[in-house]
Structure to design on (352 residues):
């Protein structure tokens, strides 16, 4: 590992320790619905058109926002409405306006199918600032993963190109779309996309039932090389997601050094009221519930599991020389008892 990488890793470790102690909330996810107009093969939430858990009413979430404002300046907190598909809520504009009126920034993640030009203007009027659109390959590969929704996603992307919003495209890489990434990259550039995020899929929800979703160790290393080379080309700002520590690729494939902010800067309120660190973390690790706890009390006094992760230092982690920098990896890749479900650093080591 390069000296410059080690310096950045040490700096990030100091930042993490400060965050663990002070935990200034900067991002709040609201799982405003578990309903979705698609049924994607890899859905970690196992969402469906008729969810088992009803949408949380807006007036149940507003007290959470007012409480968050007592522990953090609203203008420093981004509230992401996620699902499911947030645009299936008939009151999504009212939700966005309520968030904006309280001084928070507002954004959402969408499959894009329901996004029209008139709705886009209304969303911007309601204070929308950030959008992430899921596009998982060229048409055949995207539709294999998400159903017949490619045209809807592309229409949404084209609508976003000329807006003042902060937006990007998210792609879940799998066996089906891996070989077409160079063509997809050029397609995005030609369409006017400036920012692109790549995820790899972890075994949760429907995803764990389909082996075609997971890359081999060699493919994963090739993916890191693809991201690093794309970043050097400068045609599009491509970065890998928060799926863990990447050893020699730290500082090469993201705009930042890896750090899991769940429970230190990032929190979520799930559709049933559970309070957790981020949307991907297993429900076993909920820290409280808004229907019986004040959010601020939970944020200030719980989350020990996520702020002091030494309890996870066993098995492979106990033997790993990268622990000080990795701190056990992303919390969402831990099982109900803290066992490691997947480690991308070990995957890279396998591919050497």
């Amino acid at each position: 590992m390069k000296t410059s990488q080690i310096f950045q890793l040490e700096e990030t470790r100091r930042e993490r320790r400060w965050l663990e102690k002070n935990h200034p909330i900067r991002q709040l996810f609201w799982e405003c619905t578990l309903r979705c107009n698609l049924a994607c093969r890899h859905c970690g939430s196992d969402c469906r058109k008729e969810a088992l858990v009803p949408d949380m009413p807006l007036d149940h979430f507003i007290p959470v926002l007012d409480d968050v404002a007592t522990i953090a300046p609203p203008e420093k907190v981004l509230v992401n409405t996620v699902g499911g598909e947030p645009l299936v809520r008939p009151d999504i504009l009212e939700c966005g306006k309520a968030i904006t009126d309280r001084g928070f920034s507002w954004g959402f993640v969408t499959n894009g199918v329901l996004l029209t030009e008139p709705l886009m203007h209304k969303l911007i009027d309601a204070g929308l600032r950030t959008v992430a659109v899921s596009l998982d390959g060229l048409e055949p590969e995207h539709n294999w993963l998400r159903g017949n929704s490619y045209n809807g996603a592309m229409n949404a992307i084209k609508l976003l190109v000329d807006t003042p919003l902060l937006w990007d495209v998210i792609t879940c890489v799998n066996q089906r779309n891996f070989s077409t990434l160079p063509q997809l990259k050029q397609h995005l550039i030609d369409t006017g996309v400036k920012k692109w995020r790549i995820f790899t899929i972890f075994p949760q929800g429907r995803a764990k039932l389909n082996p075609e979703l997971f890359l081999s160790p060699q493919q994963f290393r090739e993916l890191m090389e693809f991201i690093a080379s794309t970043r050097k080309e400068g045609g599009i700002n491509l970065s890998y997601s928060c799926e863990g520590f990447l050893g020699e690729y730290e500082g090469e494939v993201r705009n930042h050094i890896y750090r899991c902010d769940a429970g230190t800067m990032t929190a979520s309120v799930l559709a049933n009221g559970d309070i957790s660190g981020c949307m991907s973390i297993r429900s076993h690790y909920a820290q409280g519930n808004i229907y019986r706890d004040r959010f601020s009390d939970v944020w200030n006094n719980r989350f020990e599991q996520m702020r002091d992760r030494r309890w996870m230092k066993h098995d492979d982690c106990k033997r790993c020389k990268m622990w000080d920098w990795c701190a056990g990896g992303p919390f969402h890749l831990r099982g109900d008892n803290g066992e490691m479900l997947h480690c991308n650093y070990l995957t890279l080591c396998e591919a050497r």
Remarks:
- The beta strands are 27-31, 78-82, 105-110, 128-134, 166-173, 195-200, 237-240, 266-269, 274-276, 288-289.
- The radius of gyration is 20 Å.
- The CA atoms of residues 61 and 189 lie 38 Å apart.
- The chain has a mean pLDDT of 93.
